[in-house]
């Protein structure tokens, strides 16, 4: 009897979803453009006979969702949830802040509505979005095949010519001091100032980018390639390797080893983006070696993986200094 029960369960799991609810068309990676100009990324897959997904929504990391279910072959419901801590009668109380995505698929395109509860539960914030199936990553390129154009000096050491705020309605914390590009987003007591990110006016496709950066203790920034992929800039000296540490592709690719210097020291970064593959050398050590890049990272300004874009520097986290930013385009 026990063997028969196990066989029945196995047959049920093997059968999986009914034909009316078969989610095959949703499997894979989807790039998402969100109302208001931000970006998302959804990966739908089967996990031990369960439908599963990972989601990036606007900023932060790619995270597992709490639930995903197919309504029928062309409709999907995704739920992720944040956790809030409140004071309760018997001590701290945990509450869930739900976020739902209702998705409709038409071939390799999707559209839908995001419904996110307000933190206090007093209302729901809705945003429309649309997306498309992410194109497959090209095979690993041979970096020696790349043909380079003329180097472009992104920062002239004198002023912010060639740069502008990503959002002109935010405050610019970047300035030039003694030939160095300094971001110093100082906050005032009792008031939160929204500092902006700084982007190049020029846009680029594939390239090699070299720069020097000095990160005070506890500070954090990021270098966005084509406005789409964030290479992390953070004081992570002495920590175990992680996809959120210095030189990582944020939340995606963990450095092969820790090569950062202590806070307050100048560090060198040598970054190559070529055919959707990333190489990062930190202080002369290769920590990401020609690795594929799947989809935009949090804070991206576009989900179009083949469109040119700017270099942009994150400006809202802490004091960081940059100098000697030189970009050499790949013209192949």
Automatic annotation (TrEMBL):
Organism field: Tangfeifania diversioriginum
InterPro entries, alphabetized: AL/BT2_dom
State the superkingdom.
Answer: Bacteria
One annotated GO molecular function is:
hydrolase activity
Know the name of this protein? 3-keto-alpha-glucoside-1,2-lyase/3-keto-2-hydroxy-glucal hydratase domain-containing protein
The chain positions of domain 3-keto-alpha-glucoside-1,2-lyase/3-keto-2-hydroxy-glucal hydratase read 152-326
Tell me the classification of the organism that encodes this protein.
Answer: Bacteria, Pseudomonadati, Bacteroidota, Bacteroidia, Marinilabiliales
Q: Where is the signal peptide?
A: 1-20
What Pfam families does the record point to? 3keto-disac_hyd (PF06439)
Q: Which UniProt keywords apply?
A: Signal
């Amino acid at each position: 009897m026990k063997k028969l029960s196990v066989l029945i369960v196995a047959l049920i799991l093997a059968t999986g979803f009914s034909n009316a609810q078969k989610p095959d068309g949703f499997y894979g990676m989807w790039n998402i453009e969100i109302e208001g100009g931000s970006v998302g990324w959804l990966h739908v897959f089967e996990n031990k006979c369960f439908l599963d997904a990972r989601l990036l929504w606007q900023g932060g990391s790619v995270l597992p969702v709490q639930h995903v279910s197919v309504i029928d072959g062309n409709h999907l419901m995704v739920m992720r949830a944040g956790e809030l801590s409140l004071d309760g009668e018997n001590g701290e109380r945990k509450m869930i802040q739900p976020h739902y995505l209702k998705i409709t698929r038409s071939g390799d395109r999707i559209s839908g509505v995001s419904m996110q509860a307000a933190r206090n539960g007093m209302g729901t914030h809705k945003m429309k979005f649309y997306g498309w199936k992410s194109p497959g990553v090209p095979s690993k390129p041979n970096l020696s095949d790349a043909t380079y154009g003329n180097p472009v000096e992104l920062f002239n050491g004198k002023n912010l010519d060639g740069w502008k705020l990503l959002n002109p309605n935010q405050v610019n914390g970047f300035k030039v001091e003694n030939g160095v590009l300094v971001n110093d987003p100082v906050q005032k007591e009792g008031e939160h100032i929204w500092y902006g990110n700084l982007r190049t006016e020029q846009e680029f496709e594939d390239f090699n980018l070299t720069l020097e950066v000095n990160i005070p203790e506890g500070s954090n920034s990021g270098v966005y390639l084509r406005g789409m992929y964030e290479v992390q800039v953070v004081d992570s000296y002495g920590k175990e390797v992680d996809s959120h540490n210095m030189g990582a592709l944020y939340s995606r690719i963990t450095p092969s080893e820790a090569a950062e210097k202590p806070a307050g020291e100048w560090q060198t970064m040598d970054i190559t983006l070529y055919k959707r593959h990333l190489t990062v050398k930190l202080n002369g050590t290769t920590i990401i070696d020609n690795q594929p890049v799947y989809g935009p990272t949090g804070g991206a300004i576009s989900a179009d993986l083949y469109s040119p874009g700017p270099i942009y520097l994150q400006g809202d986290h802490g004091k960081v200094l940059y100098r000697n930013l030189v970009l050499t385009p790949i013209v192949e």
